[in-house]
């Protein structure tokens, strides 16, 4: 899809994207709750689900940020990479303990809350200004 088509898609679906952010918070809380109750048989599976879910979510978000030439794109992408790398480290460091599951649950809740309510809010304002400027140019 070309850049112009992507911009139109995101303009038309910014509210949908905001709903995806809310869903990510709900999913993070759901995953964290499952991690807190996980046993040694399910812990690694849940960590994989978390990693897969956020990889897909980040890909979608990063596409949007590139389309709008978000000036903080690289730093934002790096925050995503750091999160995924931490999830991979948690999986590698799996010691079959409830302590690990609780630590991952705390990290997941904290990171998602701070990221979505912090740096994600920065690009939302930027994109809204870009969309407003574009409508004024027409």
Task: Please characterize this protein's 3D structure.
With 138 residues, this protein is mostly helical. The protein has one domain (3-137): Four Helix Bundle (Hemerythrin (Met), subunit A) (Up-down Bundle), CATH 1.20.120. 86% of the residues lie in helices and 0% in strands. The protein is built from five helices and no strands. Helix 1 (3-37) runs antiparallel to helix 2, helix 2 packs antiparallel against helix 3 and helix 3 (73-92) runs antiparallel to helix 4.
Number of helices: 5
- Please summarize the sheet with the most strands: none
Strand percentage: under 5%
Distance from N terminus to C terminus (CA atoms, Å) equals 22 Å
H/E element sequence = HHHHH
Characterize the overall form.
elongated
CATH superfamily: Hemerythrin-like
Helix content percent band = over 70%
Provide the domain count. Answer: 1
List the helices and strands and how they pair.
Layout: H1 3-37, H2 43-67, H3 73-92, H4 98-117, H5 119-137
Helix pairs in contact: 1-2, 1-4, 2-3, 3-4
Short description:
The protein contains five helices and no strands.
Which descriptors apply to this entry?
single chain, 138 residues, Four Helix Bundle (Hemerythrin (Met), subunit A), 5 helices, 0% strand
């Amino acid at each position: 899809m070309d850049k112009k088509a992507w911009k139109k898609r995101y303009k038309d679906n910014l509210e949908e994207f905001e709903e995806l952010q809310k869903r990510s918070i709900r999913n993070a809380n759901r995953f964290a709750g499952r991690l807190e109750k996980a046993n040694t048989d399910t812990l690694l599976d849940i960590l994989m689900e978390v990693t897969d879910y956020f990889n897909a979510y980040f890909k979608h978000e990063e596409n949007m940020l590139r389309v709008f030439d978000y000036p903080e794109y690289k730093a934002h992408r790096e925050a995503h990479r750091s999160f995924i790398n931490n999830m991979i480290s948690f999986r590698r460091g799996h010691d079959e303990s409830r302590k690990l599951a609780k630590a991952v649950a705390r990290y997941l809740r904290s990171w998602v809350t701070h990221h979505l309510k912090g740096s994600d809010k920065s690009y939302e304002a930027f994109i809204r200004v870009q969309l407003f400027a574009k409508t004024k140019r027409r």
